[in-house]
Amino acid sequence: MKTVLLVDDDQEFTTIAARIIEFIGCDVYTAGSIGEAKQWLADMRFDHLFLDFMLPDGSGLHLIDHIRSLKLTAQITLITGHPSVKAALASMCDEQINYLTKPIEANDVKRVLDTKTANHHAQTDPFERHFGCLIGHSPAMKKLVTMIERVAKTNANVLLMGESGSGKEVVAQAIHNASQCSGEQVSVNCGAIAKDLIGSELFGHEKGAFTGAINQKKGVFELAQNGTLFLDEVTEMPIEMQPNLLRALETQTITRVGGAKPIEVNCRVVSATNRTLAEIAQKNVLREDIYFRLAVFPIEIPPLRARPQDIPLLSEFFVHQLNDEYKTQYQLTEQAHAVLAAHSWPGNIRELKHCIHRAFIMADPDTTTLTIDEIVSSPFASTQEPDIQVPARAPATSATTLSAPVKVGETIEEVERKLIYQTLESVDGNKTLAAKMLGISTKTLYNRLNAYEQSTPEETK
């Protein structure tokens, strides 16, 4: 059982953190200042110290100097509630020192306490990661890395365009990591938020701003202060809500719902869409003025079929992750690599990952080899396949003949909901075909249906 010393002057945080550490199975002692911590260190030996960066009688760095002067081997984790010093903490870390930012979770504490596992990961991971998260060395990937390096030196907004599963969220994380900003990355899926809640999610709200607003809430623009705001599926945001986003981008100020005071915000906005430029223009899913604000630096993410040199490397990486998780030593056979190389991967990296995972599940436990005889195609990954043909009865159920009466006073959202459900009914619940008929992506359709299911029963009637 490990012995832990927790040094922090925040009594509420200390109480919660001590309970977490005890729950993990460690003996924990607490101190509220550097002076108290020195007294504990004089009387006891600790395996791990959780140390607040800013204490009433000095910096936590002073206690680190004291620990080193005593030649103690205890592991140290610096803790801070100030995101502005996160980059500074990261630069101080070595084999003995780690760091966490508040609020912390049980998994964070468990990870830093398990130093043997952490060191094992560092020693056994043979994969080079660009910006800590991107893997690949193909010409297409090298070009992408160069673009990220260039834009990271600026504060320009970035629009990521690429097929579903091509890794847009990982590229957004790479841009954030390369920027070395002091704030966090905050992500939000614009296609998954109900229309009447978008303003609250983006800009926050004041207490009492609307029914159910029992507390003040910060929006994602404020949460991403001095960091990166990732707007996934930005082209699925209702067109009537986009002027509010445009104003925030132009003025770098937001006003919470129900509030009157402008609040200055400072963050890079990275947005993403799986629509092509032609679709964006033709289907009027994004206003022209907001497009130019979001796409100061557009980046086209290559599909996996455009970077075949990376397929073996990514495959081995996914196998390595599974081996690490399940404590196994499986390896892909040459035959498996040949099958993977011959596939067109319409579902991109996501499809490849799922394929490896399936092979891992089906692997013979008495061997250490992974074989792949065939790849199970996804019905949703149809990028490389012929367009889905509407069945012969389509003329009777086409969008022009669907019975969706519009009543005076109905909102656009209510009409949209009726149209979606009637389209699904006309094709016997085939979501892929319904999405094609409605002119939206399958992912957007699922997001809309999930939003409707989470609505109140009265709203869904």
UniProtKB/TrEMBL annotation:
Domain Sigma-54 factor interaction: 134-361
Record domain Response regulatory: where: 3-117
Keyword check for Disulfide bond: no
Gene Ontology MF annotations: ATP binding; sequence-specific DNA binding
Signal found in the keyword field: no
Residues bearing PTM 4-aspartylphosphate: D52
Keywords from the named record: ATP-binding, DNA-binding, Nucleotide-binding, Phosphoprotein, Transcription, Transcription regulation
CDD domains: AAA
One BP annotation, GO: phosphorelay signal transduction system
Protein name: Sigma-54-dependent Fis family transcriptional regulator
Naturally occurring in which organism (per UniProt): Pseudoalteromonas rubra
